[in-house]
Amino acid sequence: MAVNRRRTGVWIVAAAAAAWVSYTGAHAAPGAGAAQGGTGTIKGRVKLMGPAPANTIIRMGMDPMCARVNAGKRVTQQTVVTGAEGGLANTLVRVEGSLPAGTPPADPVIVNQKGCVYTPRVVGAQAGQTLRVINSDTLVHNVHIANSTANAFDITQPQSGMVYNHVLKKDDTILKLACRVHSWMTAFVAVVPHPFFAVTDDSGTFTIARVPPGKYTLQTWHERYGKLTKTVEVTAGGTATINFDYTGSEKPQAAVIPTLNIPLE
By C-alpha distance, which of 62, 154, 50, 35 is closest to 116? Predict the structure, then answer.
């Protein structure tokens, strides 16, 4: 009888464990699926309707080492980059309003210094995420935030392969990266309090996924043409398509990217 009770006890424990697994599986999985299925996606394209202006040529001869690594190349400021049918690259698109922040991504946002320019030109990051700046040149670079006190840093990277990590704080300014050694080096970092943003690719397209259902203001930012806004409605499981057109005559407000103390151009 003792053996039977022991076997019965084992059966009861096993049955209880199986029931618990069945219960948690039946409740957790649909919950996770509902969370993902209960959100929507925003897709679209940003276009420049007028002709793209010529970008400024960078005079690399100001630093012979930069001129050497760019020998045979015609390097320009990537201020206005357009693709087929006027798709406008390097445009930040973000959802405005109070949205769940969640946990910032563990992976850093990377800006590389290579060929004496910053790549990419524009990046978006969530507050709390790490900005990683890498020196891939065999020459000295300085990198600093030129227009913010909340995210201020100023460091020198004299050797190739050096890495600097900076945890980004919430900031209402589009951060401007600059180099005290090479005044032409410019990049922009948008710090967003939530993950619902994107930067347009070379064709001007963007996708913002897993947006909670609701009616929102969608805002763009471009370093030359400034901001545009439109209203978008996101439904659970749906995809909202919204496009933005810059005429080419827009001018950003001077206050969008203030510069602190030092000349950058």
Answer: 62
Residue 254: pLDDT above 90? no
Q: What are phi and psi of 161, to 5 degrees?
A: 90, -5
Buried b (16+ CB within 10 A) or exposed e, 75-87: bebbbbbbbeebb
Same domain, 29 and 56: no
Query: Residue 213 falls within a domain, yes or no?
Result: yes
Continuous H helices in 144-211: none
pTM: 0.82
| pLDDT the model gives residue 253 | 58
Same domain, 44 and 84: yes
Same domain? 92 vs 173:
yes
Q: Which amino acid is at 56?
A: T
What is the rounded distance in angstroms from the CA atom of residue 250 to the CA atom of residue 153? 31
* DSSP helix/strand/coil, 28: helix
- Does the pLDDT at position 108 exceed 80? yes
